[in-house]
Design goal:
This protein has helices at residues 2-10, 14-53, and strands at residues 62-71, 77-85. The protein has a two-stranded antiparallel ribbon with strand order 1-2. It is elongated, with a radius of gyration of 27 Å. The chain starts with a helix and ends in a 5-residue tail after the last strand. Helices cover 54% and strands 21% of the residues. It is built from 2 helices and 2 strands; from the N terminus they run ααββ. It has one domain (2-85).
Length: 90
């Protein structure tokens, strides 16, 4: 059966080429599907967080110190460190 399939593809019949393209696209799609779904979920979470932030209370404050810590080997990780002062009940 496999030999027949290979002969069909080697013969270059249009049906074989179309079938090969469709199967190839299906396999590539299955490979990338988890990445696409993960990115979509991340965008939905970010949108939900932005929406929630709209209801946060606001205040004025002053940044006392700030710095960015950079770490990591093959993947760089940046971490902001911010100290600020703001009034409470005043």
């Amino acid at each position: 059966m496999l030999q027949d399939l290979l002969s069909w593809i080697e013969a270059g019949s249009p049906a074989a080429i179309v079938t090969l393209i469709i199967v190839s696209l299906a396999l590539v799609s299955l490979f990338f599907l988890p990445f696409i779904l993960s990115a979509r979920k991340g965008r939905q979470r970010a949108a939900a967080l932005r929406q929630a932030a709209q209801s946060w209370l606001t205040t004025t404050g002053t940044v006392v110190t700030s710095r960015v810590e950079v770490s990591g080997g093959s993947q760089t990780v940046t971490t902001p460190h911010i100290v600020y002062r703001y009034p409470v009940n005043g």
